[in-house]
Amino acid sequence: MGSLYENKELLLRELENARCILTERELCKRLEWSRATFYRALDVLREDNQIELRRGEGYRLTADVEPFHGFLPQELESLAVFWQMFENVQKPLSEPYEALKTAFLRHLRARGVPFETWQNRIHYLLPHQRKQVTPATFRKISEAILHQKVISFQFSKKGSAGPEKREVHPQQLIFYRNGWSLDALDESRIGASGPEDKGLRQFPLDLISQVRTVRKAWQEVPTLELQQFFASGYGLYAGKADALAKIQFTGVAASYVEREQWHPHEIKENLPGGTLRLTIPYVSKHPEELIGDILRWGENAVVEGPPELKKQVREKIKASAKNYNDNHEK
Fold it and tell me: Which of 62, 14, 73, 74 is nearest to 38 (CA)?
């Protein structure tokens, strides 16, 4: 048996989920309560003016019940933590929901949850080099996904002379490391790189502007197909993995990498002398992110193969070393 407050919240939740008038008998049966337990919880709801009785019919919620009334204290605390994470991901994106946050905090205080005493003691830290996305762009794209709408936008592709107009079928939003990206179907790109090219593309939101809704039937890409295309390679780069990287880690790197997950399908092997071998799939056309993660461990990371990846890492190291050559010093 829960506390009086927990029982009150359970009764509120049952009435909200039912969205209709329920009799005392129906409520006791659904909640597996005795009549005495029911009336104790009912008395608390009546004090808060959250429930009304329709004589001869039963009970229902009043029209002005505030948001979040159906949550237990521990659930409210979890929501508070998630709210802080949401604000830390990118503050401007949370600003349109300030009114909802105010109602949420008011409800927490009324229920004795001391949010103010610990709200600044839980931090969700992200990289400092976060890519900034305007609230309008994020809102329009998220709405297009939720309501299954085709959109057009200006896309400032890296390395291109200027922005180009793209028209896509949005499928999912991804927050990865330091920014948001849109996974979408671009019909104009189907077959562009070969017969297996299905037109799936990834767009960093910070490079998108002037989002517009297009009057056109939205096409859905099966979830499994999206996962196979966008999640099989290493990191954020789109495409199906076509190569396996083998990297040996020594020293402090070995102990750290052993506790990390670089890829869902990674293989880790402990070798003599405390060395760790990591095998992960990646997209050979887009090794940039993998190379960056290898280089951050310096001399404690050595690529075994494939030969092309080993060569690419070696060239990166040589190019970087040139910048510190005595001949370049003034």
Answer: 14
